[in-house]
Amino acid sequence: MVPILLVLLLALVLFGAGFALKALWWIAVVVLVLWLLGFVMRGNTAAGGRGRWYRW
User: Fold this and answer.
1) Alpha-carbon distances, residue 52 vs 13, 28, 35, 44, 46 (angstroms)
2) Cα dist. 42→7, 23, 39, 54 in Å?
3) Contact 42, 52 (CB under 8 A)
4) In this predicted model, what pLDDT tens digit does every residue of 25-53 receive, in sequence order?
5) CB atoms within 10 A of CB 6
6) 7-35 burial string, b = 16+ CB within 10 Å, else e?
């Protein structure tokens, strides 16, 4: 009975890790798209140069 429970626990952990990694990939893709949009849509400054769309 113990080996079956260990295999089920291992399967549950691997499934959870796979789901978390897939969610992190989707979050990374969304952040990349937002960054690219901000890079493309940044405005001009008063001095005529390109402004930053973030405050870092």
Assistant:
1) 42, 21, 11, 9, 12
2) 52, 28, 6, 9
3) yes
4) 899 999 988 888 877 776 665 555 556 55
5) 10
6) eeeeeeeeeeeeeeeeeeeeeeeeeeeee
